[in-house]
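seq:
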Amino acid sequence: MELVAPKKMLLRLLQRCQGVADKKSTMPVLANVLLSGEGDRVTVAATDLYLSVTGSLEAEVSKSGSVAVPARDVFDRVRHMPDGPVHISVGNGAATTIKAGGSARRYTLHGLPGSDFPALPTPPEEASRMELPVAVLLHLVQRTVFSISNDETRAHLNSALFEVDKDVVRMVTTDGHRLSKMERKVEGLDFSTTMLIPLKAVQELKKLLEEVPEDQRGDEKIIVAQNGPNAFFELGGINFSVKLVDAQFPPYDAVIPAMTDRAVRTPREPLEEALKAVSLAASDRTGGVKLAVSENALRITSESPESGNGFDEVPVDYTGPEISVGFNAKYLLDVLAAIKDDDEVTLGLSGELDPAVVRPANAEGGDDYIAVVMPMRI
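struct:
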């Protein structure tokens, strides 16, 4: 194989592959990216057998072929090339040479034959597809990704539930201690599907969506397709596929309280700052803080045998009997960070052993967001 490709575009594709190539796999080829040159294009691909990413760009291909080269090594070497065209050629034994036009800089990598690389899934023509504005899907991910469990042994919690019901798109995540649900109505959409997307795929999808400039996210569309156990996402020349989780997501409607006894309305930023400050003195083991609500005031306290006590108070809009509930401060802070675009939040409380419900006080644009945080004894 021999080709010439622009550094900037090639580097973008190689960077997108970094989070997918599996450097710890017992199959050495999975730590590589596949470079394929044919016609007037070069294709870059990576997979860990569950998650795959493929992208292509225009190139001058003088000799067709393919090679698998170490993902991190090829990315670092192309990154350190001067701006302009990058020459890639493959010799005997898959030895791959990378050099820059007009420069003496040159690298040689030990590769593997492209035929050793696993075949990548592609959606058939008859697969059902839908188009979503990038802004909508990114909003769903940003507001829910934090409450996905990191425990890979609990597949049903180490994933996000993505549902489309006619014109409503929804994402729900939980780790057993907190739950977040975000949904939005999309005009003109008529589609139905349910997917359980693993955490690693959600994180990579988030990076892909965030590549779109903010002022273009409302108009740019991502194509979503599903075929059997695989889901496919296409955006900006990048094709992203994932093997969906075959598990039963918890019945989230049963976790969300139908109503709470007390609604506390407060500015989001002062509450976030107070929680951060008071949690500095919380127990390292539990991270627990106590919220005590009385008329027009929310007092936040923490106690730790190692680091002493912490206290702060924020004004709230509330009238009613006093109530105190303990929480892991990080869980509340994660919710507040996820809804950072909202100036005020409503905190729904019932009792010291009942979950709290957090919502933006002024939902806009058809958004429906809710977070549930389980209490803790302090």
